[in-house]
Each structure stands twice: as C-alpha cells, then as structure tokens.
Here is the input.
Amino acid sequence: MKRTLIGLIAFLIIMFPLRIYAEEWNELTGLLDDSLQLVKRNEDEKAVQVLQHFSEQFLIKGNEKKQEVTPDQVRVISLAYDKAQQSLSEEGLGKQAKIDNVLALQLAVDAQVSKYQPLWMERERKVMDAFSQMEKAMEKEDAGQFQQTLNTFLNEFNIIYPSLMIALPENEVQRVNVHLSYLDEFRNVMLKTKGGQMQLGIIKGDLQKIFHTVKKDEIAPSLIWFMTITGGLILFTLTYVGWRKYKGEREKRKSNVHSKNR
Here is the structure.
C-alpha cells in the first residue's frame, strides 16, 4: 500500500509543473484578451500599455529554463506581437484590422500552451466559409468577386497563421506557405487557367486535413493513459482506506463486545 501511495504522489508531482506551466501561460493569454477587449472599446492607448506589460512578462517567462519554448516559437510570437503593437499605433488603420492583429497574437500564445483544444480551431468555420465564397466566385468566373473573396479568405487565414506555425510540423508549415505563395502570385490568372480550380481543390483538402487532424488528436494517448492510471490509483486508494476504516471499526466493535462479556 505504501508503494502505491508513493507512486501516486510521484505521479502527481510529475504533472504539477505542467499545470504551473499552463497557468503561467494562461496569464499571458489573459493579458492579451484584456488588450483585445480594450481595442474593441476603442481604447487603443490602454491596449498598447497592456501589450507592453505582456511583452515584459513574455520575455521573463521565455528566458526561464523550465519553459518549453523553442527559438522558432519565440520568433513567431514576437513577430505577431510586433504586428499587433504597430497596428494599434498606426493612424488610419481600421478597427477590425487592429482587432484581427491582436487576436492573431492571442491565438498564437494560446497555441503554445493549449495543445489539445487550441482557440485557433474555433476559427475553422470562418476560414472555410471564406474559402467556399472564393470557390463560388471562381465557378461564376467573376474576376472582381474572386479577388474580393480571396482577400477575405487571406485575412481570415492570416489570423490563424501564427498559430499554425506553432501547432503544425515543419513539413505541413512548408506546404501551407507554398499554397499562400501560389494564391498571391497567380491570383490574377487563376480564373483563366484550367489548373486554377484544381489547385483550389488541393488547397481546400489540405485545409480540411489541418483542422480535422488536430481535432482527431485533441486527446492524446498519453493523456488518456495518465487519466486512466491516475483514476485507478485514486479509486484503489479510496477503496483501501475505506476497507481499513471498516475493518478497524469492526475490530473495535468486537473488542467492545468482548469487554462487556467479561
């Protein structure tokens, strides 16, 4: 029994730093959510101050050896931060663009800590709906509408792009970049070539794979194993403690009966 309790304690000790890690990064995403709400209320100056505080805390946490942050991930988040901060200081930039840039930063930071239920996954419908509108414009061979819907899609995709740089393996990131380069370079001739619609179908398939693969992996086997083992240990411990308590009370009653009979 002692070995079981020691094993349970050791198991929880191992997982405790992971919980602390998540809580620390959740503080950062909380700051970004505050900044986002301020932008929505047209309080850009306060939003910039919150972003600066986020930057200070991010640098502190990023420099801690215990943090599981790679240089590439730091670079992605830093670039998203620079874009968000610059947009808030840029005169004439629309409110929605500012919101989108701060949101992109928030989603990227969340992607760093939320490995199984990242917030960027909630943007699937917006991204795919924008892509569907682009497909319809291509089918109608409406060049003006196609350019407009392509811009809408690229804007929606740019919101989750930093998150994808963190969440996806390198080969998938490279494939995403190839698709973006194609859309940018051939946007004016896609309607005029037979390969344009075919390429659009390939891009759509890859987008669906990105969202569906992450959904499929939301609960990792290691997490299921941990939950099963931990649950089993806790159940066994509670059962054993209950049995010992019952046995002790029964022995106590027997002792009292013997004492009365003497």
Notes: The chain has three domains: 1-113, 115-218, 225-262.
